[in-house]
Amino acid sequence: MPVPRRDIYSATEDGGVQLAAGIDRWHLHDDHVDLAPHRTPGTLVRFDAQLMPFVDDLSRGALVVIDMQNDFCAPGGWTDRSGLDYQRCRKAIPGVQRALEAARRHGMWVIWVYWHNRPDLRNLGAPTLYSFKHTPGQAGIGQDLANGAVLTQGSWGAEMVDELKPLMDPDDIHVEKVRMSGFYGTHLDQVLRTQGISTLYFAGVNIDQCVTTTMEDAYFRDYNGVLLEDACATSSPDFCQQAVVFNAKNCWGFVMDTNAFANPVPEQRGVSD
Fold this sequence. Notes:
Blueprint: E1 17-19, E2 26-28, E3 33-34, E4 44-47, E5 54-57, E6 61-66, H1 70-73, H2 78-81, H3 86-90, H4 92-106, E7 109-115, H5 126-131, E8 144-145, E9 148-149, E10 173-177, H6 188-194, E11 199-205, H7 207-220, E12 224-233, H8 238-252, E13 253-256, H9 258-262, E14 265-266
Parallel strand pairs: 3-5, 6-7, 6-11, 7-10, 11-12, 12-13
Antiparallel strand pairs: 1-2, 2-3, 4-5, 4-14, 8-9
Helix pairs in contact: 7-8
GO molecular function: hydrolase activity
Keywords: Hydrolase
Organism: Devosia albogilva
């Protein structure tokens, strides 16, 4: 007898427990979570993630690369000129490169999310401006450094780091943002829903700021969120990244490294109801 799709926490035919109802339901098992019980085999794979491995359909995933820009990751950028350790942000670059290679092989969309502020700054309030300017002498968003205005559309600082530029594809999706979250005031949600994307794999900087707020906003919107731990970094102390990783796997979704992302195992099972 078919499992009632509206009965949350009901027992499923494959021995699990149903979470939520309708097409976005999950099946929770002792050893994995099935994020796509309604999908037919073929593109289904199992990823080795924390806290639990999960099964999903590759065709509905996207890699979201956040803020891999010169102002955060390059010498002479805002992070560097503000006295923060930009080299810590650069630790994400090899992981992002590996994630991009894997996403292309999986046939996933790649979505670049990044700061592109208006030159007149009219869309930024005082709290956001203060995040980047803690003293009168510190250069904030829109103010000039040797290489141009900080995180401003058309500036050097707003460009992607040189190591990633060759890996960008004309078909990739670009989302310009003016807050830490990639969802706030952008078309990211509309793009994801119109393209049938349900699972987001997050990479970029800073993991404890723009990456985490975007992942949290995805969680609030019922997207499946996966943090690629070794493709993220921050100029903040280590405990900031550790807290994000803890919450990502315990609250907002799943955590895995780029090796697990690159090497899922094909999942063989029958078609669920």
